[in-house]
Amino acid sequence: MELPPNLITDDASPYWMNKGDNAWQLTAATLVGLQSVPGLVILYGSIVKKKWAVNSSLYAFAAVLVCWVGWGYQMSFGHKFIHFLGRPNVALDQKFLLKQTFSGMFPNATMVFFQFVFAAITLILIAGALLGRMNFYAWMMFVPIWMTFSYTVGAYSIWCPDGWLSKMGVIDYSGGFVIHLSSGVAGFTAAYWVTTTTSTLPLRFNGGDPYVASIDASLAVLNTHVCAATSLLTWLLLDILFFEKPSVIGATQGMITGLVCITPAAGVVQGWAAIIMGILSGSIPWYTMMVLHKKIWLLKQVDDTMAVFHTHAVAGSLGGLLAGLFAEPRLCRLFYMVDNWQHYTGLLYAFHAGNVGAGFKQLWVQILGIGFIIVLNVFMTSLICVLIRFVVPLRMSEEELREGDEAVHGEQAYALWGDGEKFENSKFNSVGGLDDLPRSKGDIQMV
Fold first, then answer.
1. Which end of the chain has fewer CB atoms < 10 Å from its terminal CB, N or C?
2. Contacts of 337 by beta carbon, 8 Å cutoff, 6+ apart
3. Residue 320 has pLDDT above 60, yes or no
4. Residue spans per domain, the chain
5. Pairing assessment for the beta strands 414-416 and 85-86 based on DSSP bridges
6. Which SUPFAM superfamilies does the record cross-reference, listed alphabetically (predicted)?
7. What topology is assigned to 35-398 in CATH?
8. Closest CA to 241 of 250, 253, 229
9. What is the pLDDT of residue 39?
10. For residue 241, what are the CA distances in angstroms to 123, 244, 249, 295?
11. DSSP H or E segment with residue 59
């Protein structure tokens, strides 16, 4: 919808803006942001060894935001530049930010922020594969370069209305391809370049992706939780059956794979399909992680710290394929707001309607989208890593690997009891005033 010439008026709520939708979109974006910081920071810090509890998530979050408003948003959702990329441009001009966005009844400023948190969480998920392995200075270079030349290509191709896969009708409701498959493949590829030694885990808010506080958003939220819960229980049962011990880590991984798997289809499948997706997302990634990982040479050689290949690449691909099977045409019409029966028809519903060609076409488009994201991220991530290692080493030094955060950042995440005194005398300590900190037993101090 085009705005009248006077874009800036005394009215803080233009005629085209829906206050409820705008508030919902900002809330959804904030919740996704909280999943990154502090959500993933806490998750990563609670799983790795204490010496790696200080991680690079804060840097990635900040760096992506600056790049996003500088050029990334317009490359992902702006005017067409080349076949699979938008024209680089800033997203800071008030005439642009206060104008109605390309989809939804709220301003561009809201859309820029909403899409930023997804770009940021993608980089933070990649960090999960590199935590405690990649040189921090290499990581500082990797984040803006990968966001610019890899993430924007996937986002424009799949989410932008002018994207080639978007026009073909690919179903990616909330980032199963753009976020999870991308981060899983890119993280695994980067881990390959950082180290190939034998190795010894994000949440989503899918209700914000219809760009409106609608019944479809309600369905997406419910399906997301149903799939995640089913996947968690499935993973837990498999751990009990084969290892006789249910673990908290296993439950967490099952929850994550469920969240990832439902992401491409959250608002376009019925509840029974969400349960089936949960069973499959709790079992197939479990099998690749617990069984195949020990048998396939490449998987054993790559030190994927948080197993993002299994929890995101495998689960994201699985969700994309299942969306091609279970996507309900009427629900797809609610989300995509189009009346094109040659797009957005899951294969099972195509059989029922006697339109098998449309169903197989949808499944093919889903497979094409998966293949495109995999090839894009393997190629671009490899190229970026090769170029960076000409400037700085990709891998931490042996001293940094041995000492952990003390050597890399000059600090520890937690000083427990006597650890505070040990850190005080560390050769890496450059902070004074530690004598005044309490040393009572049971104290936990952020250093």
1. N
2. none
3. yes
4. 35-398, 415-446
5. unpaired
6. Ammonium transporter
7. Ammonium transporter fold (1.10.3430)
8. 250
9. 63
10. 35, 6, 16, 20
11. helix 57-67
